[in-house]
Amino acid sequence: MDRKAETKDAADSLRLLMESVKDYAIYLLDSIGHVMTWNMGAERLYGYKGDEILGKHFSTFYPEEKVREGWPDQELRLVVRDGRFEDEGWRIRKDGSRFLANVVITALFDRDGTLRGFGKVTRDVTERFTSAERALVESEARFRALADNIAQLAWMADTTGNLFWYNKRWFDYTGTTLDEMQGWGWKRVQHPEHLERVVGKWTRALADGRPWEDTFPLRAKEGTYRWFLSRAVPIHDEAGKVKLWFGTNTDVTDELETQETLRRAVHARDVFLSIASHELRTPLTPLSLQIQSLLRLAERSGSDLPTVKVKDKLVKATQQAAHLERLVANLLDVSRLGENRLRLEYEELDVATLVREIAERVRPEFEAAGSPLTVVARDEVKGSWDRLRLDQVISNLLGNALKYGRGKPIEVEVRRLDGEVLVSVRDHGIGIAAEDQERIFGRFERAVSPESYGGFGLGLWIARQLVDAMGGKISVQSKPGQGATFTVAFPDGGRRAA
Fold it and tell me: What is the DSSP code string of 13-63?
């Protein structure tokens, strides 16, 4: 028998031997881990027939958590490096049941040193394990199941700070793999603005062996960041030496946002109370002085009071009382709007006539401030509106114009345009920067410091709420130093009174 025939007989005998062995799963993998051969022992151990498993990746036999960690591919890398690898751990049968396996993998190289594949021998050693060993393996499986289902991202690190294990939540959130995260790979999902601080604190904790805690943002797989409270504790051996670290990352984004919202609300409250006490005191002081002056005048003059002086002081007192009444009305409207208790009373009216009435009412105050008030309303603009609320909107806009345009002309115009009724109030005051033009309609918001210009920061917010309630819209056009024009637009005809 020639050499070639002998070689073929030997190969056939080896194949028959491999196929007939029933106590061991013996099979070959290609260079990237796909099943190439399948013997009777493998079919008996795993439950797959040859035509069901050939061509599939050998990670099919591994628990989900091991696959997610990238352990099957890690085994092959170790085999290529060392030539041989042996391991014991859980494997999965076709029916989903688990068994404890002893696995030996050997790298197969040709004469040129090219990797051709791997030989793999697996046997069931479940019965060989003592009850203590089995309990240990089962405990590890329970730990992994528990760790994969907690709400936190969890991980473990060695004493040098290299992370070697992460739970399922970590990979689900970050969209990374174990290979990417091994060692200090977690730095790639850290926010760059916080990385240096986090690494510094973690390094000091490793050196001191003390529990570590920090709060920082981590990047999600979508590219967004969320804030996490991170904690890690050292695990000690029987001698008290640090053996490894166990850490968790708890998502605290919502809590931090709630705290920030609360902080802003408290700040807004404090600012409001400060401004309110100042604004309410402003008209009360001159009102009190006018009343005291009248009282002294009456005491000196008896029944013969100078008519002109009394009238002048009463006018001033009335103006201050009206100002105080408007401030209180604004505060009441804040409460009503916040609780959706605002009621609208519609009636037929002419907007042009209403604007002229408001202008005449406030004209003395404007003239005293050196701000001539002009009304342009050529035609009747009739419809159904809430007279009181429309008056309040226009009065607030006029008050705003006088505050920021004092000493300069102010114009009001009423007109129809493209099916809408437009009421515009224009001043020539300090103007409003583009970035502030939306913000000023917020509650307690101003474009300038309250120390320079008084007020609650409620007038424009109330105006917008009232305009919205009546089916309209309010806008502003302005440039710094060139004044501002506020325009209220309603559907022509308003709402018909019921």
Answer: HHHHHHHH--SSEEEEE-TTSBB----HHHHHHH---HHHHTTSBGGGGS-
Per DSSP, the residues of 249-302 read EEE-HHHHHHHHHHHHHHHHHHHHHHHHHHHHHHHHHHHHHHHHHHHHHHHHHT
CA distances from 455 to 141, 183, 396 (A): 66, 59, 11
Q: Which CATH superfamily is domain 343-498 in?
A: Histidine kinase-like ATPase, C-terminal domain (3.30.565.10)
User: What average pLDDT does the segment 407-421 reach?
Assistant: 93
Rounded Cα–Cα distance for residues 5 and 61 (Å) = 37
Q: What mean pLDDT value characterizes the chain? A: 81
- Quick: pLDDT tens for 426-465: 999 999 999 888 888 887 676 665 555 555 567 788 888 8
pLDDT band of residue 125 (cuts 50, 70, 90) is confident
Residues with Cβ within 8 Å of 61's Cβ and at least 6 positions away in sequence, in order, are 46, 91, 92, 122
CATH superfamily of 150-251: PAS domain (3.30.450.20)
